[in-house]
TrEMBL record:
Its main location: virion. Keywords: Coiled coil. Residues 125-398 form the Phage capsid-like C-terminal domain. It comes from Rufibacter roseus. NCBIfam families: major_cap_HK97. The keyword Signal does not apply. It comes from the Bacteria. This is Phage major capsid protein. Residues 1-62 form a coiled coil. It is found in: Virion. InterPro entries: Phage_capsid, Phage_capsid-like_C.
Length: 408
């Protein structure tokens, strides 16, 4: 088509030159009274004009045919689809085909009048506007902490952990007169063993999904590891020690009891309970390092008011984004049962042993994975819990503890 345009331009230039030559001959003929215009020039001019017209018609028809073909490929003109500008061009070409036979230069005008307001819903078909896809998958926010974050964690290479548990003792040291009998003191120590337990799960995913969905592997492994940690939290706190369960801290912790010498507490509230629990632990010769509460109970502490609407929780502070009560940091954990508490020496009262740290493995030869193009993702860990000083922890419910404080 580009070659045709060049040929048309050349013919037009030749025609102009021949027309100028013919005009000069006509002028001479008039001056010489009847001298005829060169017959050869007439023939040459006619042939050039015919060739020019033929090429113009051919080139315009090819443009029209190409436009029609493009329209057909795009699905044609549906009965319900509004006319686009391309539709109008094709219609006008069809209506003005008669002009294509003209033997003189012409301009083909297209009426671009406003047919209607253009809107996204009306004028753009499906797939024209591409959605903006955020890369990756937005994962849910991980929990701020887990119970293991506040315990002493040690690695181990053995499936069985042996340790000495401290259970208090009898007798006490005192002053002794010369020749008097010295008091006897003993410590109640017991030999304990705990077995390593496994927490695990697996996910099957297609290879196509791994390849086609950005960040899907990271999403699944991160989400799976977080869910495993939640099970671990529940086991550390409430495992019953049977079967494959850990023996949780609350199973061996002391139950709340109003310390000796503490009188009745009028109108006891949750804040009073925390302070009384700290005293109970201290009387047992231990020191609490943290308070672990459900987020609902933390909110109850913060919103408590007196009859005048003033907040009661004057002993509640916040340091480095960690809430504190009576000077102790509050561990906010969804794994703690709402309405209950666990207060104690988290660094020295219990220890966690990692036999196999949390790990993620991929298997493409599991079951019929090879013939189905599937991948098995295994997330697991092996660990043991040793309750070394159970008396350094006190647990209970706020309802029962408040009743105990208010009792005469």
């Amino acid at each position: 088509m580009a070659d045709q345009l060049e040929e048309i331009k050349k013919l037009a230039s030749d025609i102009n030159q021949m027309v100028e030559k013919g005009n000069e001959q006509a002028k001479l003929a008039i001056e010489e009274k009847g001298k005829a215009i060169d017959a050869a020039l007439k023939t040459e001019l006619k042939n050039a004009l015919d060739a020019h017209t033929e090429l113009v018609q051919k080139q315009t028809q090819e443009q029209f045919d190409a436009l029609q073909t493009q329209i057909k490929k795009s699905g044609g003109f549906g009965n319900n689809r509004p006319e686009s500008f391309g539709d109008l061009v094709a219609k006008e070409l069809e209506a003005n085909k008669g002009k294509l036979s003209t033997k003189s230069p012409f301009e083909l005008e297209f009426d671009r009048k406003a047919v209607g307001d253009m809107t996204t819903g009306v004028n753009l078909g499906a797939g024209v506007l591409q959605p903006s896809l955020q890369p990756g998958i937005i994962n849910r926010q991980a929990y701020f902490n887990h119970v293991r974050d506040f315990l002493t964690v040690r690695p181990t290479t053995s499936p069985v952990i042996a340790y000495v548990r401290e259970n208090g003792g009898e007798g006490s040291f005192t002053t002794v007169a010369e020749g008097a009998l010295k008091p006897q003191v003993d410590y109640d120590l017991s030999y304990q063993t705990t077995n390593v337990k496994k927490i695990a799960g697996h996910i099957r995913i297609s290879e196509e999904m791994i390849e086609d969905v950005p960040y899907i592997t990271n999403y699944i492994t991160t989400r799976g590891a977080e869910d495993l940690r939640l099970v671990e939290d529940a086991q550390i706190l409430y495992g019953d020690g049977t079967g494959q369960n850990l023996r949780g801290i609350t199973l061996d912790a002391s139950a709340f009891a109003r310390p000796a010498g503490m009188g009745t507490v009028a109108n006891a509230n949750n804040v009073d309970v925390i302070r009384a629990v700290m005293a109970q632990i201290r009387v047992g010769r231990y020191a609490a390092s943290a308070v672990m509460l459900n987020p609902v109970d933390v909110a109850i502490l913060e919103m408590a008011k007196d009859t005048q609407g003033a907040y009661l929780y004057s002993n509640f502070t916040n340091e480095n984004s960690i809430p504190r009560i009576w000077g102790l940091p509050i561990i906010v954990s969804d794994s703690v049962t709402a309405g209950s508490f666990l207060v104690g020496d988290f660094r020295n009262g219990a220890e966690l042993f990692d036999r196999q740290a949390l790990n993620v493995r991929f298997y493409d030869q599991d079951r019929d994975n090879a013939i189905r193009n599937m991948v098995t993702i295994v997330i697991e860990e092996r660990l043991a819990l040793a309750n070394i000083r159970p008396a350094s922890f006190v647990t209970g419910t706020f309802t029962a503890a408040k009743a105990a404080l208010a009792a005469a």
